[in-house]
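WARN  no MSA supplied for this record, continuing single-sequence
INFO  ligand: (2S)-amino(hydroxy)ethanoic acid
INFO  echoing inputs
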Amino acid sequence: QNETPTAPDVRDLRIDGQRLWDSLMQLAQVGATPKGGVCRLALTDLDRQGRDLFTRWAREAGCEVRVDAIGNIFARRRGRDNALPPVTTGSHIDTQPTGGKFDGNYGVLAGLEVVRALNDAGVVTEAPLEVAVWTNEEGSRFVPVMMGSGVFADAFTLEHALAQRDNDGVSVSDALAAIGYAGSAPASAAASPVGAYFEAHIEQGPVLEANERVIGVVEGALGQRWYDVVVQGMEAHAGPTPMELRKDALLPASELVIEVNRIALAHAPHARGTVGWIENYPNSRNVIPGRVRLSVDLRAADDVVLSAMDAALKEAVQRIAAKAKVEMTVEQVVYFPPQPFTPKLVSAVRDAAQAQGLTWMNVISGAGHDAVYLARVCPAAMIFVPCLDGISHNEIEDAQPEHLEAGCNILLQAMLQSAGV
Ligand code: HGY
Ligand code: MN
Ligand code: MN
Ligand code: MN
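INFO  complex generated
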């Protein structure tokens, strides 16, 4: 008597690691740099080319694609009951200027690979699935960081995001329109509820590799505060101007750089302090700098510590400005507290790693991710895999195909558990 064919035992379902790797290498060609990295800044024509490639692949995989008002892309794979909120995954494809092939790109293409693997196996999930490409996660060209997911989760308004300008004065709204990704779908979880969100990402730090673990079960992410600091001195001639009469803006700015480092070290081991961006004006060899602008990025695992670091920074600005007799202003441009992920989903990631006999460990993310904002509007969790020497935001960023494949298999199983089959 014929056995009624049952849906393949989905627990044994696996993704196609070679196809995932090939898609990563193909996307990495868009904005490839001579050192083997990727420079694909948010809302540039290279970002458009990457978005176009993803949406073509998603449509070829049978997905419906929609774009929202901040340019977030959602590729939807229908389920049996499409009235249910989707189980969503994804990440970002905008990169740092010295970005790599995997930061963000891995999470987007791992989501696409889950769709392709389910298509191959003929598996239909109960709830629909969605793969998201979030706009401007990096916060390099436009601040704030995690902009698309932040608007979606109502961390700040669409109007605020659209009005932000890059260093050349180009606005987000003009840049979105220029690449043809100013979508019509509402950019909000309230209008487009999400049932559960999983994000696969390289760790971008040394912990998994140092502990020889393949899967990072991410329990949460550091909180962050970003600032714009302006030091206003006065340009003057480097020769005739006596030392005691100068209003050199670069001296107090340099003191502040040292202070940011000291503030982070004072809250070791989890605190972080970085001045990544600095502009010296007029930046001429024989002109005393008249104005310096710089960024400050503070992070901590505990919101009370992050507040203490905030206070220490503001005290340092006041003290240094008074001593140098210059004007220093500090404006906070990003704030989000440490974000725990959802225990039920974190357990699903851990259980899948154990079931597949993969080495794993619990980790906290030092990097911000779109999942941090999604966790405000739905259950959310992340899956980390190692990257070579823990290096990221660097063109030499690298990861092993088998680790990327393993992380994507965990993503597949975690999504199936949430979506139902
Ligand atoms: O800054 C971050 O943590 C992320 O790379 N946007
Ligand atoms: Mn990233
Ligand atoms: Mn990044
Ligand atoms: Mn990130």
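Confidence is low (pLDDT under 50) at residues 1-6.
INFO  checksum written, moving to next record
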